[in-house]
């Protein structure tokens, strides 16, 4: 937790001037809030004297002015602090790279960078607002005792009795929420089914019938929703009654003290206001709970920041054909000649993807070294490494703004169109509404089309080594054929993880993996003699 | 032939724009969105009256507060009659309890108004989305969430506006009963405060909207980044993608700061509308001859009723109004009102004729088809082959009338394809649509006939047995893709259509099952067009259309083996594999 607290402290410092301004304005607002009932009470008690009304007016002006300032400062400090935490988290996560996804799921990562960073950013506001809410609410209770201790006694007694009475009306509403969510889920499920079948429905002109099938859930949804509304209304009403009833209890007591001449009318007014202010103590504590949330959020962000960033060396690659050597890692000890095409085959779980990761330093081996043209991969600068190796996967992520942007993802000049042609993507890209400049959001793509853009990205980028991990699995036979032909003419070193016999047959050499180790290697025709090798493709 | 106009989406008629024309949404303006809200609320006048009634009950204790305090003090405690004072306060307590009942009913009544609103919106979304056979599935499904957000925002807007109106009325009535002159003195600053707020509202709405959009953009880019870490790292694109995400983060922070500035300024309008009246009461009430209890009552009205009411109005209206506008805009955008559809009678023959057909997905896109001529005689069996993304499905959609050509024409049975009665042709797409219901309902979706004969012909008897007969309930999520495709194939087989278009409709079946299904359709009679997933479909067809991006080539299998290098290549490759 100490690292998380350091993050919260640094966040406070980042918001800088705004935090100071927020603190100052909040304290003045609190004091003014506390002083105002007293001043108004004095003004009521001394009609004709202009001192108290003037003081009250000045205090009200200060209250409003500082409140406005606090609102501004709170928003601005939160925005700045959250942006600072987010920027740090974003850069750091990118610096660590895909290693993080082994510890955190994608959704979890997004929550930590998005929501949790923002909650951490709210720390300055929670601390200052919570503390400054304590001033008027705790102060009001103190002042109530100062005006007349009996009023405080009445308040305490009233609080217990009223809370007990209201609690008796409490009902639970957990079933309601469950039923509501169930109806929601069913509606969403039917809707999603129909969206996926949209072409069938459009062709049959059966939209109306389908709408009826989906909306069939509505009456049930409404029943549950109304139940939830009612439960919420009951809860809100109970909470809303507490303060006015407490105020009346205190007013009754104050009335008797007024009749006894122990209290002035102005003091009675002030007492009533202090009850209202004092009952805000609960929400002041709630504000401080916001700090607990910010600390918890900071702890979750810190877990990301604690992961050490991936380090790159400074070396450049000497001229070379792209020869790859993997030495001394468990079970893997191989050299791949520059410019050759190697297929990697094996049952699922045999370590194919692990080999693909190691070959281009998407992961570092625990032992041993991986060399490209004689240089250990960790010695290479990021630019040298990523410029030399191109990766394509079964499910590439479509990042970047446009189709061209997702092919040339790192923003460097790249042969976009030629790469797309080799990946069999050019024809379909040209048919998109804006061709290569079509924004990705406006280009709904099938799995096969996405794979082709992923291939194009690898072709455009890797100068010496291409690593394809099941990257043609969703292509139709025609396209796969075209891609295979383009690959066979390529002069770069090619490492192709595959399930398909034809791909293995077309490679110069096949590496057959089993349980993370090389079971055998050699030309496909020779391995094909082994029935266990043939079984890999069954 | 007689033109028969048909309007789909009857459910939604009351919500459609006038004359059924598609609603166009000008950015940022309220037009169609306001109309929508007004129509839904206006259709429930009884609830609106009930809402007004319960609001009066809810406002009762606040309206009575000042009067009660004045009497309790001046006639009771200060006059040495504490029992009278107690009675007044007791009455106030009772008023609070009655008011609480009112408050509860107000919430329930508002719920009764916004739930139908949600249903109307949902109906509209469902109909609108189903009428567009394209689009991003996930994004469309998210409109469900937008509908929920719109409902909550509408409830909040109604609550805030209504609460302000009735609180203000309560204050005015109460003050008028205590010191009528004060009403005249207090109203000008209240009106001035409201005017200031109204003046700032457009800017506030703009900044709120900007913030909301920036916030969503940030969340979106962060999510995309988290999902694509591997790709970013492999491409060495850390800096570029980082810059893009950070730019969004910074834009959001700027929008947040700008919004905070306006929020601060808005608080100042509260000074004019709420706190100035306090000073006015303090300064002028004694000179108007009011006793201490009356002054106190008047003050209570202002500090305990007027100030919170204004504060809630200023705080709630901006944020929720914008949320409502944005969510409604999104919903209406994703679900435009479907245009009326016309259907011509006739066209019973399954023959088709295409002349000079040109189609492109956008003005800057290369055309998918350009100058295509094709004749399909009744009873023809055609296979279409070519790499995916080349336009085979587009051709299927044009034949089925789901798309209209940019130039040239497509006739089916002598009628324009987009005007033909849907029973005359059937399109079976790759994504098999099976819905929750019985197997029989699913099979009879397009028409009925000899069901078990069709099941046997297509090769689905094992599936029917496994599911437990025709009356069994099916859950599409529990079926494999192949099983879903078998169901849609039986369904198409049962339809009376004379033109059947299978658009990779057998891609999840194994080769033997695919052959059995295709042969069944070939024997079924009528015209059969198969968009081929495997080259074997082409070998079975009488004629083959090869699409390879630069042009099309039509011929028999043997013919094309000679003439089309691509086709020969494909067939040769298929034989080896």
TrEMBL record, chain A:
The chain crosses the membrane at residues 21-40, 52-73, 127-147, 153-170, 235-259, 271-292. Coiled coil: none annotated. Residues 304-538 form the ABC transporter domain. It is a multi-pass membrane protein. PROSITE patterns: ABC_TM1F, ABC_TRANSPORTER_1, ABC_TRANSPORTER_2. One of its GO terms (cellular component) is plasma membrane. It holds the Pfam family ABC_membrane. Keywords: ATP-binding, Membrane, Nucleotide-binding, Transmembrane, Transmembrane helix. This is ATP-binding cassette subfamily B protein. GO terms for molecular function: ABC-type oligopeptide transporter activity; ATP binding; ATP hydrolysis activity. It is found in: Cell membrane. InterPro entries: AAA+_ATPase, ABC1_TM_dom, ABC1_TM_sf, ABC_transporter-like_ATP-bd, ABC_transporter-like_CS, P-loop_NTPase, Type_1_exporter. Residues 21-293 form the ABC transmembrane type-1 domain. SUPFAM superfamilies: ABC transporter transmembrane region (SSF90123), P-loop containing nucleoside triphosphate hydrolases (SSF52540).
UniProtKB/TrEMBL annotation, chain B:
Pfam families: ABC_tran. GO terms for cellular component: plasma membrane. SMART domains: AAA. Residues 49-308 form the ABC transmembrane type-1 domain. It is found in: Cell membrane. PROSITE patterns: ABC_TM1F (PS50929), ABC_TRANSPORTER_2 (PS50893). InterPro entries: AAA+_ATPase, ABC1_TM_dom, ABC1_TM_sf, ABC_transporter-like_ATP-bd, P-loop_NTPase, Type_1_exporter. Keywords: ATP-binding, Membrane, Nucleotide-binding, Transmembrane, Transmembrane helix. Residues 352-573 form the ABC transporter domain. It comes from the Bacteria. It is a multi-pass membrane protein. One of its GO terms (molecular function) is ABC-type transporter activity. The chain crosses the membrane at residues 47-73, 85-114, 153-176, 182-204. This is ATP-binding cassette subfamily C protein.
